[in-house]
Amino acid sequence: MQRLIRNIGWLLTGRGVNAVLSIVYLALATRTLGLDGFGYFAIILALGQTVTGLANFQTWQFVVRWGAEADGPADATGFAIALDMLSVLLGLVLAAVLVSTAPLWLPLPPDLLPIAFGYCVISLLAIRTTPIGILRLRFAYATATAAETVQPIVRAAGAVLAAIAMPTVSGFVFAWAAAEIAVALALWIAAGRLERIDLTRISLKHIPAAHPGAWRFVWSTNMSGSLNVGAKQVLILLVGAIGGETAAGGFRVASQLGQALVSLAQAVSKAIYPELVHAQDTAHDMARRMANIALVAGVLAVLVTLFFGRWALDVIAGDEFGVVYWAMVILAIGGAIELVGASLESLLVSAGRAGTAFVMRAVPTLLSLALLEVAMGWNGLKGAALTVLGSSALSVIGFWVAIISLAQITITVKPKPELPPRG
Question: Where are the transmembrane segments (predicted)?
Fold first, then answer.
């Protein structure tokens, strides 16, 4: 538990740096581009992150799960790199389809379509879950945090340059693309110094041959990861398709400020998963304690958003973004729920129930996307935020029910202790 708290501390340090610098580049982008221009910018970023989120395999989990074996992480890393290559190929096809059809359903000007496709390509080439897995396998959270800090630093510096020299949507997209490349390079260099990466072990066959259930685990975690990352970005795209670029920009600001807790939840999940894999006997107790801590942190964060959120919007984004205040508060509540559910979801995955975790995440997410147009017609961005809140609540309830069922099964099959002989 002590190591877990230390690792979470390193991750939160990185998140803290990211949070501070994100205020800088969010303020520069919103105030330079305005509500409409920031809406176009938000749509392009959402396209790139949707492609990456849907195509990317959660390879860090494979490195952690199979890399801890006696023969080392060579095969696990080779399998992860092979999956990354597959992700790039699948992502390029998806990017071509989404960008070519964008004029039919997204409020994106034709001159920005090449920029959008280029950002999708850069995002795919900058996939970095494998080096993150290597660093987490060795519990090198301090090193990982230092490498990941490159991204917000380059973004903030790029946003300053864009605001001065190229105050357009394209200028800010270039800054974000440069940050993607920089952080990917930093993480691969850090991982390479810690663990020799044997390129001859790149294969899609070695790990599945040694672990018959490998592909089932791969697809389950991929689909869960796609939902976690992709659904958020798909939501922004759909908000833009339904309400226009102004709605997309406003919702991204509300999401970035209100759902900062989701990033925190992801940090907690990534820190606790290796611990749960290595300590199955105490996994339930560890997850329960982390959920209790998360509950207190979540309530405090929602209160801060409620009382200081409007002021933060005015200071960071400007008066015209004040209309998204209540959407931001609703998203903050959803983020608090996700924070509580992070350790529960990790517990299910570490117990080999990745498929169950996916179902508990997929059904509410698909339901929320299906209801989005009705919700926005009823109450605009607040309605869209309520669909996110409802999805998070249903998912976490599902995780809790699944864990209770898992615990009952474990108790049922646990052998009874032998009684000492009488006399």
Answer: 7-26, 38-57, 78-106, 112-127, 293-313, 325-351, 358-378, 384-407
